[in-house]
Give the backbone structure.
Amino acid sequence: MIFGRVKLAQALGGILAHSLQTEDRVLRKGAVVDATTFALLQTAGYTEVTIARLEPGDVAEGEAASFIGELLLGPGLRRSQDVHGRVNLFAEVSGLLRLDTTKIERLNRIDETVTLATLGDRSVVAPDDIVATLKIIPFAVSGQTLADVETLIAAGPASISVRPFQNRVVGLILSRLPQTKKAAISHTVAATRQRILARGGSLLPPIETPHDTTAIRIAMQTLLAAGAEIILISGASAVTDRLDVAPQAIVQARGEITHFGMPVDPGNLICFGDIAGKPAIVLPGCARSPALNGIDWVLDRLFAGERVGPEEVAGMGVGGLLKEIAGRPLARDTREPSGFGTPPSTQPRIAAIVLAAGRSLRMQGMNKLLAPMPDGRPMVVQTVARIAVSPTRPILVVTGHHDGEIRKALANEPVRFVHAEDYVQGMSASLRAGIGALSGHIGAALICLGDMPFVDPGILDQLIAAFSPAEGREIVIPSFDGQRGNPVLWGQRFFPDLLKLEGDVGAKQILHLYPEAIVEVPVESDCVLLDVDTPETLAALAT
């Protein structure tokens, strides 16, 4: 590839290396200098420009990204279209991300022009989560580089895949001593149920027994007869040896102890057993808490159909110090697409809902969401792109008016679409459609307006950081100079109220019902107050 600054007359057929401003538009980086572009640059007074020019054998960035992105598609994945040499890979199912880390490292060493970034191996992912980003750095790569990448990826199993969580039936046994408190039992049941449901499994009615080997063995046999595929045993006291009460119950049930202990903290004191090919696990004491600990790593693998034997357990030590890691969100419960249960993690999963269904009645026939911004992108695309930088997932875009055009504009963004059939009724219809489409394990929703394209991603991070149901901060509102703005973050317990809204009113209509749950987050920009309601406002923003 040839790259350099040339006289304008020599730029025809080249690729613009930088975005350039003309009198009435921005010519984007990557645009080919054709006759029209040449005329615009000449009129704007440019005499020299920096261009890239492909040489024989070069492959343009978009074509190369699409080609490699398609090669990388393993089970459980989909990909975006190319945008300036970038292709994202998304999970299609809830499950465990698996990577051939050696192959990915080798790919990144082939040539500096090709880069692949991923989440960590065995990350828990949900549908629409971005798991990898492929980026072609310059405007083209050599054909030889592309051939080398293809040879590497084609060799052996998939480089990237998602192993879907299976619907496993789990039995839970809780042994007790005279001093065992009822709260300890109920907390363990609740935490275990959250873990099982979050991975798409089902929990049989738990069985309480005395802390006695024979009693635990009988309970195991009862659960196995009821169809349990995994047995979990929560002992009244921590397991300290293979010969302890609960491990010996596994042996008494004609099973075997396969491994004792685990190099993961919290979670060290765990005992692995097997009864006729079915895992039987004596839980560590930390499993009574919903916070991230070693049992989460074990269940991830079991529900994804992976073996958890001595070698696999020994391999958990690197990265196994979990004490200082914030609780990660678990995958959504795919069996229950509606309803509002308890979030499966101490850090609730937060979705974003972008309201993009309105008719723009004051815009003189124009759909403001499709109007170009200074960088050339439609307003709704700029809005969504800023939200996509935040940790909110999924991002739901509610459509109505000009549904097809909105979907087309956002085709390359990491979003899911929800159509509000009754969008003519106003904003409440959009809110009902968005909230109604959320999974039962979404802990909060960031309600965003499609016509607020300048809200800084850092502000979204501030709102998310301020959200804490445990401390009573369940409705988070940005404010500038004492005036409340948007977007607003709503905790899960208010979803039923949002579903009851009617007419052309927003969620703020119910704020007066919950003053104790509101926290205002002062921000340093008035972008949280600026939405686009008139042609004059749009004209001012677009300059």
